[in-house]
Amino acid sequence: MSQSQDNAQAYWRANKRLLAKLLVVWFVVSYGFGILLFEPLNAIHIGGYPLGYFFAQQGAIYVFVFLIFFYAFRMNALDRKFGVAEKD
Question: Domain Sodium symporter small subunit spans what residues (predicted)?
Answer without folding.
Answer: 8-84
